[in-house]
Description:
The protein is built from 5 helices and 3 strands; from the N terminus they run ααααββαβ. It is mostly helical. α1 runs antiparallel to α3 (about 90-170) and α2 (about 35-80) packs antiparallel against α3 (about 90-170). Zinc ion binds near residues 203, 225 and 226.
Amino acid sequence: xxxxxxxxxxxxxxxxxxxxxxxxxxxxxxxxxxxxxxxxxxxxxxxxxxxxxxxxxxxxxxxxxxxxxxxxxxxxxxxxxxxxxxxxxxxxxxxxxxxxxxxxxxxxxxxxxxxxxxxxxxxxxxxxxxxxxxxxxxxxxxxxxxxxxxxxxxxxxxxxxxxxxxxxxxxxxxxxxxxxxxxxxxxxxxxxxxxxxxxxxxxxxxxxxxxxxxxxxxxxxxxxxxxxxxxxxxxxx
Length: 237
Ligand SMILES: [Zn+2]
C-alpha cells in the first residue's frame, strides 16, 4: 500500500493525465477526416468519369435533334423537287445536290450516334457508381460530424470538471513534493507512473531491486529511465 501522501499525489496525477489526454484528443479532433478525403477523391473522379458520361449524353441529345432537323429539311427539299414547281435543270441539279449533302450529313451523324450508343452504357454505369458512393459518403460524413459535436461537448464538460477538481487535489500536496511533481510533469507531460511488476508503467523500463523495494516501502522514488515518480499499489498490477 502506498503512503497517504503518494496516494494523494496519484489522485492529482490521475486528474492531470486525463486533462492531458483530453487536450491531445482535442488537438487531433478532426472527425470524418477519412470520409472527407474519400469525398474529395470521388468528386475528382466525377469531374472526369462522370463528366465523360454527361458529355456523351448531351452530345446524343444534340445529335438526335440535328438528325430530326435534317430529316425535316430533306422532306421539304423532296417536296420541292417533286412538287412540280421546279422546272429548270439548274434548279433540279441544285436540289439534288442539297439532298445528297443532307443525306450525307445524316449518315455521318448516325455513325457517330452508333459510337455513342456503344460508349454511353458503360460510361453511365461508371458515373452512377461514383454518384451512389458520393451520396453514401456524404451521409456518413454528416453523421460523423453530428456524433463529433456530441463527443466534443462531452470532452469539454469533463475538462471543466477536472479543472475544477484540480486545485483541491493540489492543495493537500506538500510544497516540495508539488514542485518536484510539476518539474517532472513539465518535462514529460505526466509526472507519475505505476510500478507494474518490475517495470515502470510510463516507459516500460525494468527497475532495479533497490528501486522496487523502496517503492514498496512507501519511499518516493523515480524511474531510473524516465524519472517519473513511481507509484506502487497492490491494486495496480
Ligand atoms: Zn519510466
